[in-house]
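Task card 7
Instruction: Convert sequence to structure tokens.
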Amino acid sequence: DALAKRLATRYPVAEIAAMRNAVHLVIVCAAAFFLYGARTLRTSRPAWHALRGAVAAAATLCMFAALRTVPLANVVTLLFITPLFLVALSGPVLGEKIRHGQWIAVCAGLVGVVFVARPTLDGFGWGVPLAIAAAAFSAVNQVMSRKLAQHDKPLVGLFYISMAGTVLLGAVSAVEWRAPRGEDLLLMIAMGLIAAVAYFGVFKAIELAPPHRLAPFYYLQIMTAVSLGYWVFDEVPDAWAMFGMAVIIAAGLVCFALERSRGPKSQAPPTSE
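Output:
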């Protein structure tokens, strides 16, 4: 995300996202052909994978567009409205029981998000709404990933999500494509390599546990976002944003504690790898 923010000042966000997905696609294809064989990428649900890829592409596009005008730490923190969507969707879509304490903790986290967004509402145009839209798309993507993980390996999901992102975002970026310079091209490739490893980790995690159980771990991104924002962009969150971040982290820890209190029975049954 920090690399995307740096590149977004010089290139269209669709082009940056398309390049990142293209690197994903190359890595996934290489892993499939050389480690598992091409047959491992077969699926009986190509339409659902394509739809999930479109949702993920929309989330990436909104995220990168928000990074153009809103500080890195604020955008990353605003994405943590995602757990609210996850809790809301996990019950009716996945049939998972959500405890009252989790609802309270997630709502408290939403209050924290309001504090983070408050100082950014002036002067950033569509940045804040785009970050919130990215969170909504991300939640839908994670719920769909949970459903598809019951049928396909994580590598299959990453292949289709990368292919859909490359095609869709590539088509959008073709309208105003700018040939990247040597250093910028290396940064785009590095961004794709880092994101590919992270995506695979997320897919494996979603395969093994319910989305609302994983949500608290995502709060660690706030710490790295604040650090990178200061180190790379000289961005320092103000008092309102810092307070909101603290509320969000506390709410995430409460969610995690409530989930752990259920004991082993609360864990999702293992699914096929």
